Amino acid sequence: MFAFIMNAQYIYNDFDANQNETFEGWPNMPTVVANPDVSGINTSANVAEWIRTGEEWAYVYCQLDGMIDFTTGNVFELKAHVPTACTILFKLEGDGGSVELSTDVTTVNEWTQLSFDFVGAPTDIYNKLVIFFDFANPVDNTYYFDDVTGPEVGSGPGTPVDLPVTSDDEDVLYGLIDFGGNASEIVVDPTNESNMVAKSIKTAGAETWAGTTVGGSVGLVNPIPFTESFTTMSVRVWSPEAGIPIRLKVEDASNPTKSVETEDLTTVAMEWETLFFDFSNEAEGTAELNLEFTYNKPSIFFDFGTAGGETDQTFYWDDIVFVNETGIPDNYSVIGKVYPNPATDVIYIENAEKLQNIVIYSLNGQIVFRSEKETNSIDLNNFKPGMYTLLANGSNGKQYMAKFVVK
After folding, report:
1. Which residues touch 355 (CB under 8 Å, ≥6 apart)?
2. Beta strands in 120-176 (DSSP E)
3. What is the pLDDT of residues 282-300, one digit of tens each?
4. Is residue 328 scored above 60 in pLDDT?
5. Which terminus, N or C, of the chain has the lesser number of Cβ atoms within 10 Å?
6. The domain 10-154 is classified under which CATH number: 2.40.30.100, 2.40.128.50, 2.60.120.620, 2.60.120.260?
7. What is the pLDDT of residue 397?
């Protein structure tokens, strides 16, 4: 008896009857067109056309809802029709890293069969295909590709992502989807080797709207629990510069026309800080928060509104948290002492750690005070009577909370 191991030819997209997965691109999207050369190994009616422009790292990609199951095979195949001899790089990406293979194509102006054998690649790690035509060579040209096949796509092991998003659980499927020229992955925190964070590179030449979505195409397990009083989320961010606008968008994963966006600015360079995003204060030109909608798909944009420069920009981010109905993000600890409490004119913060990036919320969730500098006292003369929540970053990297009352 003989045993044969066959490569399971799951059809990702044949651009005819079996368009099981969607291909997108940066900076240009591929389109389905009539086959320009019905001959040889490819007589199908329709193929994908992609116009490569002068961006060095231009690519097409396919984001999957599940994970590539290498127990069903190792080989990806596609047909390519190229105008010039070139290198084609085929890359797989996921939260656990990436792997890539390349081949030199010397046959031009006719269909060629390409194979990429990822023998030995770990299964259930990768959920994104990226194809670079004429890799790293910024020359305008038109490429055609068709019949992309390969191993099956499964759900993979792991738990779907939900709030708070902490990056630390290797069993969670974070489902990072990049667009517009971002490149993201889960990595070790460069400032704390015991912590895992998301790393996003806004590549040179990226779009003004380059960003990263959390949760793949299906979003979070549960909707973000906005109420009339509680409309704020926080994200820890490490930025190369101060004064950079960071935008956070949330939308309905099943209907992207239902969305709301807001922004905050970084205040420090090359340090972690917590930014707060109040969705009752929507970004100019975007839709208002609608409490009747379901918002379950967050996306983050770094240096929003500015195109990628001549070099890459690297950002790190972590701990996407909803400021819940107690007014306390889930990952905050209690400050040692805030006194007097109740207070009238001033409060003093007594704590072993130096605290900075202090934000104070009113009982209805509105930001009423913010200070990026280290301080141990806060003037309350402009505060109305009521209960307030103070949030701050400690010099030890932890985050702190305290509640106090103004009489």
Report:
1. 335, 349, 374, 375, 376, 392, 393, 394, 395, 400
2. 128-133, 141-150, 153-154, 159-160, 172-173
3. 999 999 999 999 999 999 9
4. no
5. N
6. 2.60.120.260
7. 61
